[in-house]
Fold each of these.
Amino acid sequence: MERLDAFMARANAAYYATHDPFRDFTTSPEITQVFGEILGLWAAVVWQQIGRPDPVLLVEAGPGRGTLMADALRAIGQAAPAFGRAVSVHLIETSPRLRAEQAKRVQGATWHDGLATVPHQPFILLANEFLDALPIRQILRRGESWQERYVDGGRFVEVPTDPVPLASSDSSGFIFELNEAALAFVEAVSNRLSIGPGSALFLDYGPEHSAPGDSLQAVGDGRPVDPLAEPGTADLTAHVDFEALAHAARKAGATPYGPVPQGVFLTRLGLFQRTGRLARSQPPERASALIEAARRLAEPNRMGRLFKAMALGARGISAPPGFE
Ligand code: SAH
């Protein structure tokens, strides 16, 4: 028997070590090159805002195939060469298989298992669909008692636990999710921002405000599957609780911005202008594919609303682009 977070951590480590996740699902950087390009330009503007530190670390957490970073660095090299010269790239990735993929697309990077070994220097951190992959706990109230979900032989079992101070008294039966790993990551980033210059940008899916409910989901072979069956064969994720993360960031001494719906954020950063410029130099079929890809990221009923952008900054620095 394993607590859900231990099960999820083990299942995802096995999954990312043995599978090409991008056969099972598609992420924004894999949908259009413009996504990584505009995040690179976002980082370039933030670098100006924080006083052009040189050197500066460009850190990515959970870089997948390395596509976002490759697209970002190409755009930075073209539009912000001084920033490009100041940058050293650090990738936080636990999967050896994905590290090898990243090395094909990003030259000269340094890899880390977590934030702890990333040097204490001015930094700009990017993370797309990273926090949703970190393990969650699920706790529910049954009458007067509190139960926590464990996994035993492919099924949930409930084990009595201490009350959690997150629910009102009429919440019987509702599931409350705690993402302690995501909170710890955001806290660690925020601690660094409380003592030195930097910024962080998280893009992920989840509601704007904390809400009870079971958001654990699994995708295997491109389809939704039972999250508890055959650990290691499916990608397990959960909604990101941006409100809880913003609270943790503020407590640790950073300033949170957003969350802003991804569609709003990317449109403010010029997703459609940049896509239009790129499309003009392409054959008609490729041009319409690029425009369709931009719409997929931005339209509210597609990835534009459920996905959100949240930034963290040091106190006293102006709001980063897209959060004004
Ligand atoms: N950002 C990429 C990939 C998202 S998938 C994209 O948008 O395409 C999640 C990524 O986080 C993968 O690279 C996975 O290996 C990595 N990851 C998952 N859990 C991790 C952990 N605990 N520590 C570091 N990386 C992790």
Amino acid sequence: MDQQSLFNKAPQPWQLDDQDDWLAARVAFSEAPYGPYDYSIPAELETAIKPGIRVEVPLGRGNRKMLGYCIEVIGAFSDNASSVNPGKLKPVARVIDKTPLLTGSLLELAKWISQYYLCPIGTVIETIVPPGIRNDAGTREMLFLSLPKDIASRIKTEKLSELQSKILQTLSRSAEDWTPRELADTVGCTAGPISTLRKRGLIVATAKRVQQKTHEIPGEERMEDLPLNPEQQTALDQIVSHVESDSHKTFLMHGVTGSGKTEVYIRAIQKVVEFGRQAIVLVPEISLTPQTRQRFRARFDRVAVLHSHLSAAQRAWHWRQIAAGHVQVVIGARSAIFAPTPNLGLIVLDEEHDGSFKQDKAPRYHARDVADWRAANEKVPLILGSATPSLETFQRSIERKYDTLTLSKRVLDLPLPDVATIDLRADFGGRKRFSPISQKLRSEMNNTLADDGQVILLLNRRGFSTRIQCPACGHVETCPDCSIPLTHHKEGNKAACHYCDHQIPSPKRCTDCGNPSIKFSGLGTQRLEMEVAALFPDVPIMRMDTDTMKRPGSHEKALANFRKGDTKILLGTQMIAKGLDFPNVTLVGVINADTALHLPDFRAAERSFSLVTQVAGRTGRGQRGGRVLVQTFNPDNAAIVAATRHDYLGFAKTELPQRKMFGYPPFGFQARIVVRSETETRADHVAENIAKLVKQSADELNARINVLGPSVAPMEKLRGKYRYHMLLSSSVPRQLQAVLAHADSRIKPVEGVQYAIDIDPQDMM
Ligand code: ADP
Ligand code: ZN
């Protein structure tokens, strides 16, 4: 209540009545100032304004018209009525939506994400609600865009801005024609650059008479249930008891590779569907293969698969289908956790250890933690499945916060593959020329191929040579915008930065001293492919990494070829380590298990362990058995040793005490602040200031927070910006958020400097 207005003018009884019965809308914006701010609701809009709709409101002195999200309606008798100052509010000008864009429970989820990850709620809502829904895509459109036939030849001569090439690329990646709005939404641009491209004839627009586009969900041939083994049955029973009693529980389903986890998910979801409810299944993007889709579509009538190649209109269409309750199972990557299921019954997060579940831009949420909160809020079970659980999840299962479901054996009693290490130190000595394939691996590959088996080779580095160095002066060619070495790509003979899009023709002489004998070293997948082709000249090989798998559908096609047996050797980056189930793969070779082992990140050992274990799990899936050979310079490293023994518990037993000693997660909570600027001194200066404010805030709030840094980030410079960072830790959950929120409100913006707060950071570079 506004005290002032009450006392200034003695109120008459009828006025008092009126003032006592006010209604206000709390409105948040998706850009600065983010708010939220309160607005009064005029009587004629009282029924139209609900939480989750958009409104137009006046902002600031000039009463600039702004579009905002109503996140709450507060009245004189609401619990938090005292947080509103009803005497001084400007009225809402206009209501945009007839129905809320997001359900009440999704709005609650948005509030939690906003508080936990310290991100404005308007930004969170725009992450949850797809742009196609906000812009009402899918309504009738007449124009469809496509590329002209001669685009390939013209593109070489035309001068294009970064945005323009992005638009053309987006269009070229889709098999369908797009409406201008779909294209603009998907690229994230206005209509301007698209119409410029049309004028230049680089985009062709064709008028078509169409009704609203639909994207039917195709059915699949039915498959019968498999008889479960006892471990699977026990796991299923425990999950189902929570589905039946409408209660929340988080399960860690710890099952070795090939133990039949997916079969258990499917059976649990069947129960959920029987109850008329929906399930959400989250998988890493790369696992959204036809194989995964088929497995679900063969068992359920209405499955929505949300992958990153959907157009804005397709995404919007799925969203509406899900919101209307027409979909039984939603399968998707990270953001599918925001699916607007009206009556959620179960959430599954498969490969829960996977790094892709954490978003690397604001809101920097982790889908696992969001899923945990959503499942608790909607009182449904959550299953976290993995052969190599993150230590965060594993520790929670030890502490009995999560129930553990163990699948200790592969299905049909198939044995886990035998794993041997090859000591590269010994192998390297005495040979004139370095070969990425050791003698032993080579002869095993020969045996496998002679037996008509298939081979998978893992090398987690793309490109040809990962280092271009001058032997005379030692100069290493680096990206001018990022402080990292350029990778030589043989295709197109270019040197490329793997962080930004910077590319130059590979230098013929040192760019520093001019010495003509430049050295290309460091092994990437392109070079591995060449070496393998030279060693096995008549064997069909397929390389799989982000360079070869750019077009939508290429991943599917490559896997289909491998499944048919047309490809005998599949080599690639971690892309090939995930979820593939090919019974004829009888040999897996890890070219270098150490690529990630020595990074300045306390999770380096965990990531190496999990990558090697996962790729090893790609073999021995049929009756023919399987072998794994792991090449390493560190055969005694605890993570490598544990991986070769399929010994998750052994790994956890050595790793957890170390984490505990240093207060690292899962025993401590962390936040990271990264400060970026094109001017190094400014970044440094602002980082120092922020650190000071954080320490002050911690003192004032009596919170015990440990501040490490600020210092130069391991990636000193990225995309032209210098980077400083600091790491904050605390043993008390939520204390970091309180201190950071306090400090954040006092940080004054400095021109040309940005900072980002990352709660529970995964990326330390
Ligand atoms: P995971 O997800 O644990 O790696 P999957 O669920 O992919 O394992 O199962 C591996 C293979 O075993 C799949 O081909 C699946 O169809 C099969 N499978 C699963 N459960 C059973 C079972 N009870 N009996 C026979 N085969 C099974
Ligand atoms: Zn770069």
